[in-house]
Amino acid sequence: MTISVPATSANLGPGFDSVGLAVNLYLTIELLEATNHWHIEHDLGVEVPSDERNLLLETALQVSPSLQPHKIKMISEIPLARGLGSSSSVVVAGIELANQLGQLNLTGADKIAIATKIEGHPDNVAPAIFGNLVIANSIGGKTNHVTAPMPETGLLAFIPDYELKTSDSRQVLPNEFTYHDAVAASAIANVAIAALLTGDMALAGQLMEQDLFHESYRGKLVPEVAKIREISHAKGAYATYLSGAGPTVMIMMPIDKLTTIKSELEAQEFSGQLLELAVDTQGIKVVY
Ligand SMILES: Nc1ncnc2c1ncn2[C@@H]1O[C@H](COP(=O)(O)OP(=O)(O)O)[C@@H](O)[C@H]1O
Ligand SMILES: N[C@@H](CCOP(=O)(O)O)C(=O)O
């Protein structure tokens, strides 16, 4: 059996902690033979545990403590700590592993509730589970979500060479907002979501760049954002935003502008990778 889970790009500007998009980079785990001890084969480096301390197994065993140990092969195309939801992909894969091995018959609603409790916010785990664009919230342990198709858009991700842990990037955010600022910030988010749901990418893009919740505080952690925004706009992009907690910068544009924007950005020689992505429409995939 293999389980694959897509990467996710959270926030889309003002949808902080509540909006995310599934994209076509995958974490895949393959269940191998039953053994006496859990063991994960992977090439993700020595800092990623190969035993029960790995987030995959921590999650699976939290959901179902008495699972039969197995050998597992793990392959991830999702770069770690870059703002593309690597930790959420593992949490979601762990929940699905417990679901399959423990025959738990979890529903989508069960999975999002468990995953949100572990991650703390639903914006990555929700699209990782369901695919597409997902708008979700969680309050008092109750999680709500709405899935929607993403309007047609080209997608480019600039993935810097350096890591930025979500926990570190959350440290720079303010503890409080005035009532006035909270109303202004959520009004921007409301219009951005309405534009996304009605397929108006030009308006959505404008609002996505007016975020007041997080990007301005995090901008100093990702110095490339300003230049990428300037260049992309000069060539007709809809929007640029910090993917999740960063440092990846996502660029959305009309499909026919993608090649030009990509080559303009390549000419800058930023240290990092420029990847053309597509929306994942499936979420968790299990193959027997
Ligand atoms: N395949 C994996 N197996 C185990 N842990 C992982 C894996 N991928 C990511 N992680 C954990 O998640 C951390 C990154 O999570 P985070 O800082 O939220 O960044 P992001 O989710 O944006 O990639 C890694 O440092 C590692 O601890
Ligand atoms: N809303 C969160 C999203 C974190 O996403 P990640 O991909 O960086 O883990 C935040 O902005 O902190």
Q: What integer value in Å does the Rg equal? A: 19 Å
By DSSP (H or I, 4+ residues per run), the number of helices equals 10
Strand portion? 25-35%
Terminal CA distance reads: 4 Å
* Ligands present: adenosine-5'-diphosphate, ligand LJ64HWYM
Main sheet properties: 7 strands, mixed
Portion in helices: 25-40%
**What is the CATH topology assignment of the largest domain?**
Ribosomal Protein S5, domain 2
Identify the CATH architecture of the largest domain: 2-Layer Sandwich
Family: Belongs to the GHMP kinase family. Homoserine kinase subfamily.
Domain GHMP kinase N-terminal: 56-131
Function: Catalyzes the ATP-dependent phosphorylation of L-homoserine to L-homoserine phosphate.
Keywords: Amino-acid biosynthesis, ATP-binding, Cytoplasm, Kinase, Nucleotide-binding, Threonine biosynthesis, Transferase
Short note summarizing the structure:
The chain is α+β, with helices and mostly antiparallel strands. It has 10 helices and 11 strands. 35% of the residues lie in helices and 26% in strands.
Describe it for me?
The chain is α+β, with helices and mostly antiparallel strands and 288 residues long. The chain folds into two domains: 156 residues, Ribosomal Protein S5, domain 2, CATH 3.30.230.10; 124 residues, GHMP kinase, C-terminal domain (Alpha-Beta Plaits), CATH 3.30.70.890. It is built from ten helices and eleven strands. α1 links the parallel β3 and β4. The longest helix is centred in the middle third of the chain and has 19 residues. The model has no long low-confidence stretch (mean pLDDT 97). It binds adenosine-5'-diphosphate (ADP) and the ligand N[C@@H](CCOP(=O)(O)O)C(=O)O.
